[in-house]
Amino acid sequence: MGAAGNTPTPSILVINAGSSSVKFALYDAAAPENRLLTGQVSGIGTGAVEADLPQETHKEVQNFGELAGDASHEAAICWVLEGLEKSGFAIMAAGHRVVHGGSAFSAACRVDASVEAEIERLIPLARLHNPHNLSAIRTVRSLWPDLPQIACFDTAFHATQPEIATTLALPGELREAGIRRYGFHGLSYQSVANSLQRFLPGGLPDRVIVAHLGNGASLCALHKGKSIATTMGFTPLDGLIMGTRPGLTDPGVIVYLLEEQGMEAGRLSHLLQKESGLLGLSGISADMRVLEASDEAAARFAVEAFCYRIVRETGSLVAALGGLDGFVFTGGIGENSARVRGRIMEGLGWLGAGVDGDANQARAGREPLAISPAGARLPVYMVRTDEEKVIAAETARLVA
Length: 400
Ligand code: ADP
Prior knowledge:
By secondary structure, the protein is of the alpha/beta class. It is built from 15 helices and 13 strands.
């Protein structure tokens, strides 16, 4: 594939536009499980934008040229698209990660004006994500108006939850206005379920909890591979303690801050999105690596609180599932932090998890790994998530 002279492989472009980064990858359109290249632009909004391109394996990416250090999301996406074009890649379709799909989307779909309008309408429910997802879609359309685009929603995987799990106990007019629990990280849960289904001789067990632990973090209860409950709710603010989000917080705290401290809405939103969680607890960092390396008592407490919340919320999901046949770690922390995994498995001792020090130290690889002691009543796995691969597969399927 690649630059002039070779016949380029028809490929699918996957774009994951996050709050400060744009990750992209190309997959073989005829065999979308084959990733051809991957790259990313990070540090958007910080004034120190950096690009990471696969220079070693793909000489043609030299055609991308320089990217300005103060590039915006739009500028970064334009730079990626123009760079891919100049490098001679043959892109047949683009698949996007879209965080919030609300009630309208229970599956991936082709983007048209009405889909764009709905993603825009949902911006207040995912302020950190939907605006950038939408901007990626619009930038692709402005450069390549005829390219088919597919939106893959993080909420869609949770459309299988029963009404009792998604309903908030609020008056009817608010429920009718769409105020309910949705759930997120669905592309990751799909990826993990696919991997375990392939990897385990008996396929995915009936009752599994997956812990997606990254900057954002959530748990999902899977019954026969389908989401029946999850810790995130109306927005990605609910549930676990995250890098900068507090997760589960008595709504009375919000009322108190509004009424007694006169906190203004924008300030409150910033507090809950950017200043809380591991960062707020430690006063040091939102980054688990930094906290693990710190000797400060507040850093240790933040890590302990992170694990404690996961163990407690697991109890709630076990009740929803009526038992548990497997527990899975994924995401940047889940795949890399033996300390966090060890503390959580200790906390799940009552479910029969057990800890095998050596197995827990293993590094996540392409295949899922069993990390619980042999014969443990509750098998525990570590699975590397690959959301982009799920998007590539959905995109290939929908444009076929
Ligand atoms: P995002 O939700 O932004 O995709 P990731 O899934 O990449 O985030 O997870 C980022 C988190 O993973 C950070 O808290 C980071 O510190 C943590 N992490 C990455 N590598 C390690 C490691 N080796 N040990 C502990 N934590 C790690």
